[in-house]
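subagent[fold] <- orchestrator: predict structure for attached chain, return tokens only, no commentary.
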Amino acid sequence: MASTAGYIVSTSCKHIIDDQHWLSSAYTQFAVPYFIYDIYAMFLCHWHKHQVKGHGGDDGAARAPGSTWAIARGYLHKEFLMVLHHAAMVLVCFPLSVVWRQGKGDFFLGCMLMAEVSTPFVCLGKILIQVSGQGRMREPGEGTGRGGTSRAAAEGSGPSVIPSMP
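subagent[fold] -> orchestrator:
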């Protein structure tokens, strides 16, 4: 959804600094509750996974492992970069895009949103790690997909983003 919004915004901007698109401000306001919800949903998945696996006691019974704070510490330890990314988007990027940007640079905001097109390939990489194990080589399509989608997003956003070849 973010990559589609980014494509629509960046292709509709003829002047890369001054053009505005209504979707750029609407999408950033939609993204804040999504990021907050996503942090909470990831925590609930982490909590339920530990509850089902029975990490709660020595007898192996399926119950929650200790306090909520212990679960939260384990979640932050495991998913620190993802939580940091979501928190930075809410606490830094949203205020910058709404207040400091003052309606300018919608083209560049669209280009940044198009980078999300590589997300399915990152998820595919995590799935392949779980399915095939750590010792085996992952599918080459995962890395090619990430690199290819990044390049396609850069090419789709226009000639001003891609450095010209001599």
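orchestrator: received. Logging for downstream: DSSP finds seven helices and no strands in the chain. The radius of gyration is 20 Å.
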